[in-house]
Every structure is written in structure tokens, then in C-alpha cells.
């Protein structure tokens, strides 16, 4: 029986009522915690593990797992700073997801049945990327859709119904050295350094990449930085036969 890997997405250790997600080891579907018990029954998975603290839980023990040491806290050590309760990046992300939801659910939208069906699956995620490259990687890793034509059709709908670029664009996440996340030259090396330890789930990799970015003295919202990290993972490092990301030799 396969080990089920769970993960806790973008939540701080001391945050009340955190939004917890788990990834099913049988089908690799991302599931919200309230729906996990039913999902695991259908997939016959007996174990889950938290990606933030790497702790493995036996059947139903995961229900009490609400707080842990996150990857960011683990790798940043004394440099770690919990997110503020009011996060502008999260507000912007929520607005983006609501906009995507409105576009997908609008019956007047001219979307073919297959594309609409694929887009419906996006509604189970709260962290839909706002950048095209990150969107492609996200769909491939989260929905296991590898056809660029299908993903392109999905992105066309999402992008066409988003806010005008001038409004939707976030300000650069400038750090103390003036380097924005978008132009930071260290992403490629950080990806390669992390993957030398071995293959890992894309979510864990993104969290570690953000920690490396912060270690250089730069700042930015966790959501914005994770999306930027995702967009810098080379597509050839992902495979339709393996849910993890790994270096290509």
C-alpha cells in the first residue's frame, strides 16, 4: 500500500484555523482537510504525511494535526518571520481566484465542454497562479494534465477574464538589496542545489526556494514568492510519470 503524502499549504505555525491541504499518494490529487477522510476511503490510503514538518500520521491521526514547524521556519531558523494576519498578497490572490471562478461558472462564456470540465477542477485550489508559465507548471503538477494545447486553452480563458494587466500586476517584491523576485538571478542555482539532494514534491521545492531567496536579505509575500519560484522550475524537470520534480541528467 502506497504512503500518502500530505501537505500544509502556505500557513504559519501559530496561525489559527489554518487552511490545510493534503496530496493523495494514490492519485496525487490535492484535497482540502475536511474532505480528506472520504477521499482516503476511496483511494484506500492508510497514511498521510505533512510536508511542512515531514511527520507521518497513521489512519485518522492527521485530524489533530493543525500546527507544526513549517519548511520556511525550519530552514530560515532565527530569520523566520511569521506572516502578518492581514496579507495584501493573499487578498490579491483571493480576488484573482474569485475572478477565475466567475469566468468558469458563467454559462454565457463561450468555452468548449472539455475545457470547461478541466477548468472546473481548478476551483478546488486557492492558489491558482497568475503568471502563464507558473500556471502551466501548476496544472501539470496539480491536475496531472500534460497536453500543452489543453493547458493553453485553459489559460486563454483565465487570462481573458482576469483584471486588466495594469490592475492585476503586483508590485515587484523588492528586498533590502533592491532585487525583485522576478529578476533575482539565483533561482536556477537554487533549484539545482535543492534537487541535488534528490527528487521532491514541487510544493516542498517551492517552499525551500523561497527560503533561499529570503536568506539573501530579500523580502516579499509568501504567496507571491512561491508563485515566482514555481515559474522558475524548468518544465523538463517535471514528468507525467512521476509526481515529483528532479534534475535531468
Please explain how this structure is put together:
This protein has 249 residues and is mainly α. It folds into three domains: 6-69, Dna Ligase, domain 1, CATH 3.30.1490; 77-82 and 173-245, no CATH class; 88-167. 41% of the residues lie in helices and 8% in strands. It contains ten helices and eight strands. It has helices spanning 36-43, 71-76, 88-105, 113-122, 132-142, 148-160, 165-168, 187-195, 202-215, 222-231, and strands at residues 6-7, 21-23, 30-32, 48-49, 56-57, 200-201, 238-239, 242-245. The strands form three sheets. The protein has a three-stranded antiparallel β-sheet, with no helix packed on it. The longest helix is centred in the middle third of the chain and has 18 residues, at 88-105. The chain starts with 5 loop residues before the first strand and ends with a strand.
List keywords for this structure.
repeat, Znf_C2H2_sf, metal-binding, 3 domains, 41% helix, 8 strands, disordered N terminus, globular, zinc ion binding, mainly alpha, three-stranded antiparallel β-sheet, Dna Ligase, domain 1
Rg, nearest Å:
18 Å
The count of helical stretches stands at 10
Q: What class, by secondary structure content?
A: mainly alpha
The proportion of residues in beta strands is: 5-15%
Mean of pLDDT: 69
Counting structural domains, the number is 3
Q: How many strands in all?
A: 8
Which regions contain 5 or more consecutive residues with pLDDT less than 50? 1-18, 164-174
Helix content: 40-55%
End-to-end span in angstroms? 30 Å
Strand line-up of the largest beta sheet: 1-2-3
Sheet of most strands: 3 strands, antiparallel
Order of helices and strands: EEEHEEHHHHHHHEHHEE
Shape: globular
InterPro entries: LYAR, Znf_C2H2_LYAR, Znf_C2H2_sf
Subcellular location: Nucleus
Protein name: Zinc finger C2H2 LYAR-type domain-containing protein
Organism: Effrenium voratum
Amino acid at each position: 500500500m502506497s504512503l500518502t503524502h500530505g501537505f500544509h499549504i502556505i500557513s504559519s505555525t501559530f496561525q489559527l484555523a489554518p487552511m490545510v491541504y493534503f496530496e493523495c499518494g494514490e492519485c496525487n490529487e490535492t484535497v482540502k482537510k475536511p474532505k480528506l477522510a472520504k477521499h482516503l476511503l476511496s483511494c484506500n490510503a492508510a497514511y498521510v504525511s505533512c510536508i511542512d514538518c515531514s511527520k507521518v500520521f497513521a489512519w485518522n491521526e492527521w485530524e489533530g494535526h493543525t500546527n507544526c514547524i513549517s519548511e520556511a521556519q525550519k530552514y530560515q531558523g532565527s530569520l523566520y518571520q511569521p506572516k502578518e494576519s492581514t496579507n495584501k498578497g493573499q487578498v490579491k490572490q483571493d480576488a484573482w481566484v474569485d475572478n477565475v471562478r466567475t469566468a468558469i461558472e458563467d454559462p454565457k462564456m463561450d468555452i468548449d465542454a472539455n475545457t470547461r470540465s478541466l477548468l472546473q477542477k481548478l476551483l478546488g485550489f486557492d492558489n491558482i497562479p497568475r503568471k502563464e508559465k507558473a500556471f502551466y507548471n501548476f496544472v501539470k503538477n496539480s491536475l496531472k494534465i500534460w497536453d500543452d494545447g489543453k493547458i493553453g486553452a485553459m489559460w486563454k480563458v483565465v487570462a481573458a477574464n482576469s483584471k486588466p494587466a495594469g490592475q492585476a500586476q503586483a508590485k515587484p517584491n523588492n528586498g533590502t538589496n533592491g532585487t525583485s523576485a522576478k529578476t533575482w538571478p539565483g533561482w536556477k542555482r537554487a533549484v539545482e542545489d535543492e534537487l541535488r539532494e534528490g527528487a521532491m514534491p514541487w510544493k516542498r521545492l517551492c517552499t525551500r526556494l523561497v527560503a533561499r531567496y529570503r536568506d539573501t536579505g530579500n523580502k516579499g509575500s509568501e504567496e507571491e514568492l512561491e508563485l515566482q519560484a514555481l515559474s522558475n522550475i524548468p518544465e523538463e524537470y517535471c514528468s507525467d510519470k512521476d509526481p515529483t520534480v528532479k534534475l535531468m541528467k
